[in-house]
Design goal:
Length: 381
């Protein structure tokens, strides 16, 4: 069994993909070609926003959103402590300060109450100006945008949705990547909608914002590439990757359903000694990861070895919360600063998850996980 197995998906898209690539290789529109235009229209419609601007990867998508806003030294951008490094990295790269915020143990997402406290603390200190919050749709579940947007509005901050793991998810009748003032996603192969290399996209309802993003991804171009109006990036999505994504998008809704089915199997089969993910009313997760929280008496590293020996691959997302990352040591945090994120980083375990995981495989995962967890419990008593 593989942690993520997309071989079957490839077999399904192969006929269409072969055709699309053959045409592309004849057209030779490798950069910002026809498939990119088609994809951008389809993605914007899917997310329910006016514009999608594809780009080189999810990290650049986040960066582009920040560059547009001109944030830099003196600006505070609030990010969850329990996420992939990119979310904070892009803020620090701009010279702004990533202000870390603890998360909720039940959703893994940024805790609105902690966000409010962090914003107020920054305001009281008076050194930085709160500008933006970047909620992350971690593991495929949208953050609590109703609460976050209220806080952002009260403090005059923008919301940048990090939907790198969330594309396809739903929140209160809206789709992921439509929930902030601007949103970013990633098409890294392991994401729910992944390409065959690196890729990403920015989503916005603003005509002017979209035009600026299109300029930004091609060296701040004006009417032509050789007229440069601002300092930009080389951050385009390859046409080849767009062709892959167009094929995968045809299957995407069906695959979200299949992911949901795998999650439901786990929910049914896993023992109650592990804490299973809860999906709040009004949300639909896209199950980028199926992540459980292990009880204290389990030795996680040892459990992973036991599972591996039984043919069950697992991953830990994330071993180290951002405040304990060396690259962010200059923020001056120490162990104990974000107790929920620390607790999660020590107790989470992600299980095999992909649309084509079979019922028997979910049963195997559950059988071994339940057995090992219960044997830890027994030796504890
Ligand atoms: C994957 C990911 C990114 C970065 O996407 P890349 O395409 O790998 O650059 C950013 N934020 C989160 C939460 C992610 O999971």
């Amino acid at each position: 069994m593989k942690f993520i197995d997309l071989e079957l998906q490839y077999q399904r898209i192969k006929p269409q993909l072969d055709k699309a690539l053959a045409k592309l290789f004849v057209r030779q529109d490798f950069i910002l070609g026809k498939d990119v235009d088609v994809l951008e229209r389809r993605l914007a419609e899917y997310a329910g926003v006016k514009h999608c601007v594809t780009c080189s990867n999810g990290t650049d998508a986040l960066s582009m959103a920040l560059i547009l806003n001109g944030y830099g030294p003196g600006d505070a951008v609030f990010v969850p402590d329990f996420t992939f490094f990119s979310t904070a990295e892009v803020v620090a790269q701009r010279g702004a300060v990533p202000v870390l915020v603890d998360c909720r143990a039940d959703t893994f997402n940024i805790d609105p109450a902690a966000l409010e406290r962090a914003v107020e603390r920054v305001e009281q200190e008076g050194k930085l100006t709160p500008r933006m919050v970047i909620p992350v749709d971690l593991f495929g579940l949208c953050a609590d945008y109703r609460a976050i947007r209220e806080i952002a509005a009260a403090h005059n901050m923008a919301v940048l949705e990090d939907g790198a793991q969330g594309f396809g998810a739903e929140y209160e009748g809206k789709r992921a990547c439509s929930l902030g003032d601007i949103a970013a996603t990633s098409f890294f192969p392991a994401k729910p909608l992944g390409c065959y290399g690196d890729g990403g996209a920015v989503f916005t309802d603003g005509d002017d914002t979209a035009a600026r993003l299109r300029s930004l991804r091609v060296h701040g171009k004006g009417k032509t590439k050789y007229e440069n109006n601002s300092l930009g990036l080389n951050a385009r999505l390859d046409t080849i990757q767009a062709a892959v994504l167009n094929c995968k998008l045809d299957l995407f809704d069906e695959e979200i359903g299949l992911r949901g089915r795998v999650a439901a199997w786990y929910g049914e089969l896993l023992c109650d000694e592990v804490k299973k993910p809860e999906i709040p009313a009004g949300s639909r997760s896209v199950w980028a990861q199926y992540t459980v929280i292990l009880p204290d008496y389990v030795n996680r590293a040892e459990l992973q070895e036991l599972l591996k020996a039984s043919g069950v691959p697992t991953m830990v997302y994330y071993e180290r919360p951002l405040h304990l990352q060396k690259a962010l040591a200059y923020l001056g945090h120490q162990k104990g600063d974000f107790p929920v994120a620390e607790y999660l980083s020590e107790h989470v375990l992600s299980l095999p998850m992909h649309p084509y995981l079979k019922r028997e495989e979910a049963e195997t995962v559950a059988r071994f996980l339940n057995r090992f967890v219960r044997s830890y419990k027994a030796s504890e008593l």
